[in-house]
Amino acid sequence: HANCNYCDAVLGCKSASAGTASLVNHLKICQKNHAHICSTQSELTYQVSEDGNLVVPWQYIEKEVREAFARMIVIDLLPFIFAEKEGFRLFMAKACPRFTVPSRTTMYRDIIAIYEAEKAMLRKYFIESRQTVCLTTDTWTSKRQQSYMVLTAHSIDSGWKLRKKIINFVLVDGHKGDDIGKSLEKLLIEWGIERVCTITVDNASSNDTCLAYMKRSLTNARSRYLGMRCVAHIINLVVQDGLKIMCHPRNRIRSAIKFVRASPTRLDLFKKCVQLSKVVSKGLINIDVVTRWNSTFIMLETAEKFERAFEQYALQDPNYKTELEKTGPEPKPDTPDQRGPPTQSDWVYVREFKQFLQHFYLLTNKVSGTKYVTANTFLEDIADVHFMLGEWSDHVICGDGEIFKCMATKMKTKYEKYWGDPEKMNKYIFIAAILDPRNRISLRT
C-alpha cells in the first residue's frame, strides 16, 4: 500500500494488479494536494508551431495580435467603432494589458491593408495558375439610386477543390448592357483573368447585350457558349407565375399572420391558442418576403401546422375576423374575395400546393450550392421539372385539380420559354451531364 502525503489516503499500488494508475487518479482528485499549490505560481504558456509538429514558447507579437483583431472585425461583421467600445477596452486591459487597442481609424487602415494583401495573393494565383474560371454576376440599384455589380469567380484548383471568391463589389454607371460589359472587361484585366468558361446571369435583357460585348472581348473559341442562365432565377420566375394563380389563399393566410404578429398582446394570445390546440412545433409563424417565393413556401409550410391554432384564435379575439374582412382590396367582378380569415378550403389548397412547391424548393437549394459542383446535375433537374409540370398540367391529381392544372399549365409555359428548345440551351449543360460517370452507366444500361 501507499499513503498520500497530503490527505493520508491509503492507495493500492501492487505492480501485479494496480500499478501506478491508482496514484495518478488520486492525484487528480486530492483536494489537499491542490490546496498546497501556490495560487501565485505562474503557468507555462506555449503555442504550436506552424507545421503543427512542435510545441514552442509563446511570444507576444504586437503585429500578429493587431492583424488577428482586424480579421475578427471582418469575420464577425463588427463595426469599426467596436475597437473604441468601453467594455471591450476594459476586457482587453485585463486579458492582455500589453495590447494597445487601436482606434477605429487605425482599424480601418489595418483592414484595408489585409484586403490589399489578400487581393494581391489571389491575383497572383489567377495569373500563375492560368485557371479557367466561371463567373457569376448580378446588378441592382440601391435606395440612393446607385447601381452596384457583384462579380464572383468559381474555379477548381490543382488539388481538385472547388474555390469560390467574390472578387469585386463595385459601383457601375448603370444597368445598360454595354456599361456592365465594360465594367466586367476592366475587372478581368485587373485580376489577370484570361480564360473564362461561362458567365452566369439572370434573364434581364441588358445581360444579353453584356454577353454579346464579352464575346467580342474574349478571344478564346469557347466564348460562343459564354452565356449561362441562372437556374435558380428561372425557377423563381416559373414558380412566381404559379403563385399568381394561388394568390387568394396565400394572401388570406399572409394577412392572418400579419394580424397576429402586429402586437405582443396578439402574439401572446396566439401562443396560448397554440397550447390549447396542442400544436407541436418548435418554430412559430413568420411573414414572407413577397419577392422571394421560397420564403412564401416556408411561410405556408409553417402556417399549415398552426391551422387549429388560427381557428382557436378566431374564437378568442372578436376583432380577428372583423379586421381581416376590412384588409385588402375590393374584389373585382368574377374574382374570389381575398379578404377575411383563412377558410377551410384555403388550408386544403395550402397542403396540396405545399407538396407541389417542395420540389422546387429542394431544387433551388440544390442548384444554389457553392461548396460542390452543380453543373453535372442541371440536365437531370431540368428534365425532372418538365416531367412534373407535364404530369400536373395533363392530369387532375388533386381534390380540386382544375386550379392546380391551370397553375401548372402557366408554369410550364414560362418554363418552355427558357428550356423548351434544347437548341437554345447552353451546350455545357449537356456536356457536364455526359461527363458524369453515373450518367454513362445509365446510358449503357
Automatic annotation (TrEMBL):
Stretches the record annotates as Disordered? 322-342
Q: Where is the composition biased (Basic and acidic residues)?
A: 322-337
The domain of life for this entry's organism is: Eukaryota
Key words of the record: DNA-binding
The family database entries (InterPro entries) matched by this protein are listed as: hAT-like_transposase_RNase-H (IPR025525), RNaseH-like_sf (IPR012337), ZnF_BED_domain_contain (IPR052035)
Does Hydrolase show up as a keyword for this record? no
Q: Which residues form the hAT-like transposase RNase-H fold domain?
A: 368-442
Which Gene Ontology molecular-function terms are recorded? Answer: DNA binding
User: Where is the secretion signal located?
Assistant: none
Carries keyword Transcription?
no
Q: What is this protein called?
A: hAT-like transposase RNase-H fold domain-containing protein
**Which organism is this protein's natural source?**
Aegilops tauschii subsp. strangulata
